[in-house]
Amino acid sequence: MESNKKTWWKESVVYQIYPRSFCDSDGDGIGDLNGITEKLEYLKELGIDVIWLSPVYQSPNDDNGYDISDYQAIMKEFGTMEDYDCMLQKAHDLGIKIMMDLVVNHTSDEHAWFVESRKSKDNPYRDYYIWREGKEGKEPNNWGSCFGGSAWKYDEKTDMYFLHLFSQKQPDLNWDNPKVRQEVFDMMNWWCEKGIDGFRMDVISLISKVAELPDGEVGKSGYGDYSPYAANGPHVHEYLQEMNEKVLSKYDLITVGECSGVTVEEAKKYASSAGKELNMVFQFEHMDLDGGESFKWNHRKIRLTELKEVMSKWQTQLQDKAWNSLYWCNHDQPRIVSRLGNDSERYRELSAKMLGTCLHMMQGTPYVYQGEELGMTNYPFASPKDFRDIESINAYQELTEKGIVEPEEMFDFVSYKSRDNSRTPMQWDDSANGGFTTGTPWISVNPNYKTINAKEQMQREDSVFHYYKKLISLRKSHEIIVYGTYELLLPEDEKLYAYTRSLDNEKLLVVCNFSDEELKYELPAEFCGADIQILIANYQREQMEKNMILRPYEAVVCLKAQ
Ligand code: TEU
Fold first, then answer.
1. Number of CB atoms found within 10 A of residue 273's CB
2. From ligand 1's centre to the CA of 333, what distance in Å?
3. Engineering a disulfide at 83: which of 31, 33, 173, 430 sits with its beta carbon 3.0 to 4.6 angstroms away?
4. Which protein residue has the closest C-alpha to ligand 1 atom 11?
5. 332 alpha carbon to ligand 1 midpoint, in Å?
């Protein structure tokens, strides 16, 4: 059956690198390509198959590289194209594939296309972007941008506005223009010819907007919501099928589309097993569970029952129809051990391992974000001046100035959810700056690097690092972890996440205690026999018992071969 087809990208584990914060080889305080090359052996040791590289292209860095001014050049701070080629070659020599970040919903306003586009109404590049006349001296519609304020910017030169769903320096490309699509496809082919192995597609669900650009429902910020008219828009599948035909289908690639606002039904189209668009999507439903009235800004904790419901929906409804991606972390999310686990000294490692277990035993392609394999934590921000991220800075300013949230409370919210939490430098060892740089880091290193760092964890058998290494290798030795069918147990339990996976004559049981309490757990009868093998556990555990006591944040996985 086509839908159950076995492929390498279903069996792979992906590791995301945020180059700015990974490893600095030249002491300028900013991570770079040579730094990545130096650390490839570390990743080999961890056992990952693919690196997703956040953008390394030329960029004025309004949004740390997600604002690209030249898709075929390397950002100066990161090195040169020769450095890139070296990194790619060495990765390939080690058997590691490279997945590039493709940011084509928008460019930088410093991209040559936009520089031309804004010159005049009849410039050949005018229609590369989305320009509109104002309405009665105001913006063309009420849409708010993701990073605060209006999604429109007035341009005096031609007395018109351009659309930017993200920052003012990230104008949206007009995908309805066939020339834009062709330019993007040519650029993608150029990278493929270089030998790269895949693409992670930034906000690809937003590329097709409803032509009339209608006003959206007004939220707390005072701006209208663009998503009903831009997310999973009218031609998105058509454009991706064209991309598949003109680029993707010609190479053996791994592709994942970042799809904010994607539903299971939409995902079945983007990532259908028929293979006409992408391999998989990043959905946001589990990450949005602790969202609130003012977007993501609050310190609500995710309820386990809700999390189980969402995860299980994706696991069961994509079965045989499409393929899942699995992630807790990326460069836009706070650290998972501080969010869903417990980052106290006592429970940090246990809960980090438990969370890794819960995710890595599911069906889909797992993504590990740099430092997740060490159980890295959120950053202890001391003042709003510590924020570096455009989203955090703008949100703090806008919501406090408008009196929507009190400054003290907003500081708490942003500290908890800021994207900067994941962007603090990778903690390599206990030397100055965690071994990330010999210079001054562009963003402060988390002071806990003296105890939480790669060097210490590589030397210690019971570390989070070694646990992740084992999770990754189990996936290689047990097909059931990749392909087994998922079934949730005890959906109403507020503290325990238990599920099974089944494949042919095998069955896997995954039990995770999400609380700091001891829990009683009655083992399903079929896992009570003597033939049960424990595959991995985060505490010492010799055997499964009928009446189990699960210790705080305990995780255990066992296998029954019939
Ligand atoms: O993120 C898109 C996206 O959905 C984010 O706006 C997300 O909602 C937000 O970061 C959560 O706080 C992608 C990139 O991953 C992000 O880093 C970029 O800033 C953004 O696109 C614009 O390119």
1. 17
2. 9
3. 33
4. 332
5. 6
Condensed to tens digits (0 to 9), the pLDDT of residues 55-113 reads 999 999 999 999 999 999 999 999 999 999 999 999 999 999 999 999 999 999 999 99
Are 495 and 515 within 8 A, CB to CB?
Answer: yes
Residue 332 beta carbon below 6 angstroms from any ligand 1 atom: yes
Residue 4: per-residue pLDDT: 65
Order of all β-strands in the sheet with 325-326: 280-282, 254-258, 198-201, 97-102, 50-53, 14-17, 365-369, 325-326
- Determine if ligand 1 sits within 6 Å of the CB of residue 67: no
Which atom from ligand 1 is nearest to the alpha carbon of 106? 23
Residues 56, 19 contacting (CB under 8 angstroms): yes
Q: Domain boundaries in the chain?
A: 2-105+178-206+235-471, 112-163, 484-561
Active site residues: 202, 258
- Ligand 1 centre to CA of 331 (Å) is 9
322 strand-pairing partners: 272
DSSP per-residue string spanning 384-436: GGG---HHHHHHHHHHHHTTSS-HHHHHHHHHHH-THHHHSPP---SSGGGGS
CA distance 251 to 545: 49
Which residue, judged by its Cα, is nearest atom 5 of ligand 1? 332
pTM above 0.85, yes or no: yes
Residues 362, 482 contacting (CB under 8 angstroms): no
Task: Select from 3.20.20.80, 3.30.300.30, 3.40.50.300, 2.40.50.140 the CATH code of 2-105+178-206+235-471.
Answer: 3.20.20.80
pLDDT tens digits, 336-363: 999 999 999 999 999 999 999 999 999 9
Q: Could you tell me how many residues make up the chain?
A: 562
Task: Write down the CATH number for the domain with range 484-561.
Answer: 2.60.40.1180
Atom of ligand 1 nearest to the CA of 419: 12
Residue 227: count of CB within 10 angstroms of its CB: 17
Which of 146, 256, 262, 285 is the pocket-test mutation for ligand 1 (most atoms within 8 Å of CB)?
146
Tell the CATH topology of 112-163.
Oligo-1,6-glucosidase; domain 2 (3.90.400)
Q: For residues 12 and 358, give the distance between their C-alpha atoms in angstroms, rounded to a whole number.
A: 17
